[in-house]
Amino acid sequence: MNSVNDKIELTLPFKAEYVSVARLVASGVCSRIGFDIEAIEDIKVAISEVCSKIVSIGSEIANSYTIVYDVSENALDVSYVCDDPSLKCIFDEEKDGLAINIITALMDSVVLCDKSNRIISMSKVLEGNR
Amino acid sequence: MNSVNDKIELTLPFKAEYVSVARLVASGVCSRIGFDIEAIEDIKVAISEVCSKIVSIGSEIANSYTIVYDVSENALDVSYVCDDPSLKCIFDEEKDGLAINIITALMDSVVLCDKSNRIISMSKVLEGNR
Amino acid sequence: MSEGLKFVQEELNDSVKLSLFGEVDIYTSQELKEKLYSIVDNNQTDLIIDCKELNYIDSTGLGIFVGALKKTKQYGKKIVITSLKDNIKKLFIITGLDKVFVIE
Amino acid sequence: MSEGLKFVQEELNDSVKLSLFGEVDIYTSQELKEKLYSIVDNNQTDLIIDCKELNYIDSTGLGIFVGALKKTKQYGKKIVITSLKDNIKKLFIITGLDKVFVIE
Ligand SMILES: Nc1ncnc2c1ncn2[C@@H]1O[C@H](COP(=O)(O)OP(=O)(O)O)[C@@H](O)[C@H]1O
Ligand SMILES: Nc1ncnc2c1ncn2[C@@H]1O[C@H](COP(=O)(O)OP(=O)(O)O)[C@@H](O)[C@H]1O
User: C95 and A98 in contact by Cβ < 8 A?
Assistant: First the structure.
């Protein structure tokens, strides 16, 4: 993880209709960091893929999940946290081939099965700072 | 407050550059509720006015403040919470005339000095449900 | 603002053209699935999906395109995808789906 | 996406026209203030603020317009605000500032 300057958190219900809100926050945060439009589109897709997966599974014990956008000078780290430990390691190589392909291609680093309390974490660095 | 179906929370640092993120979330949430474009613009302005005021004051003890968007079938309730109690009752009739005017005109109900743990709360009801 | 998804459907000589407007994500994907599958089953012609005004799609939507393609092939027909924006064409390339669909 | 704020400045016969593009909020307001105040002080002419491409403004921005107006009046000149979008014109009406500026 890069040295973090600002932390933005978005907490959403497990509902498909709010996944687009995670994309909107991504747009706003990324344009502040200085990502170009192409990189912003990539980040939006990656964030959305993870939200879709989380929402499609849902939770019996938690009402919401949280997306943490950690902003540093030249990078965005995104991680997902939830009180429900059953949401760890939710991506399945077999069933989620398309999504895993897309996320790993679009982001610079991806941890789909994080050992910490994060469900998933991933990051993208500004072009020219990689 | 209206009976709440969904709760979306956005936590932001005390920085002017992220106030636009609060507006983006407002857009996304409000379009889901079914507000028309004019109402969405109004809500964005009101939310932004409060964020600007909070950011302009800042906090010595807290790193962030949280905007809670409570979605019910035909209304949006927005409230602001922060660990710093000095952020209560921050609007000044004298100095913030323009902002207070705007917020109270655009929203259906506004509590600028909330007695609960909320800093400020306000709501807007869908046209036709008022 | 969240855009949702809208469709415009045109019956051409030997094919049906479906234009997509807005965003395909997990929220709007069910509508897309129903729309595509009903066109394929009812018409049994080639299907042209015009993506000029498609601003966003993710794996949920791509998976539905693949499902529709399988159905189309049962009838010996094909799916042609036109006017993809660069950010979306990129997803077809990443997933190898640019070789599965006819992309124009 | 966050749009930020951009300016285009034109020197006309007896006035300066400043076109605003994007959003005026607490983040971009300092730029607006510096721009407006420097135009007013350097030119001492009427100022036309074109808001055709201004998508958003709040009290921070309106307060700056008022500050610029006070400066302009010191030089015996006026500010004309043109092409306001409906949602923004509404804010001028709410605050009574529609009677303070010349709005066209
Ligand atoms: N490159 C490919 N070529 C052909 N079919 C593919 C390709 N990638 C995925 N598919 C098919 O697309 C469908 C959906 O993909 P899948 O990996 O299950 O993603 P998801 O479950 O996230 O929608 C599956 O039927 C899969 O076989
Ligand atoms: N209707 C009005 N007509 C003229 N000036 C106004 C009006 N409303 C506010 N102002 C002036 O605009 C400036 C900024 O307004 P203010 O109420 O201080 O808002 P804020 O502090 O939130 O920017 C002040 O100088 C105030 O006197």
Answer: yes
Question: How many CB atoms sit inside 10 A of residue B31's CB?
Answer: 19
Q: How far is D91 from chain A (nearest CA, A)?
A: 24
Query: Atom 17 of ligand 1 has which residue's CA nearest to it?
Result: A97
Say what the pTM is.
0.92
Q: What is the ipTM of this complex?
A: 0.90
Cβ atoms of A82 and A67 within 8 Å: the answer is: no
D-chain CB neighbours of A37 within 8 Å are: 1
| Residue C67 identity | G
pLDDT at B130: 64
pLDDT digits (tens, 9 = 90+) for C35-91: 999 999 999 999 999 999 999 999 999 999 999 999 999 999 999 999 999 999 999
- Give the CATH number for residue C83: 3.30.750.24
Number of domains chain C contains: 1
Q: C41-72 in b/e burial notation, b at 16+ Cβ within 10 A?
A: eebebbbbbbbeebbbbbbbbbbbbbebbebb
pLDDT of residue A115: 84
Among C13, C98, C17, CA closest to C62: C98
Query: Options 3.20.20.70, 3.40.50.300, 1.10.10.60, 3.30.565.10; which CATH number does B6-125 get?
Result: 3.30.565.10
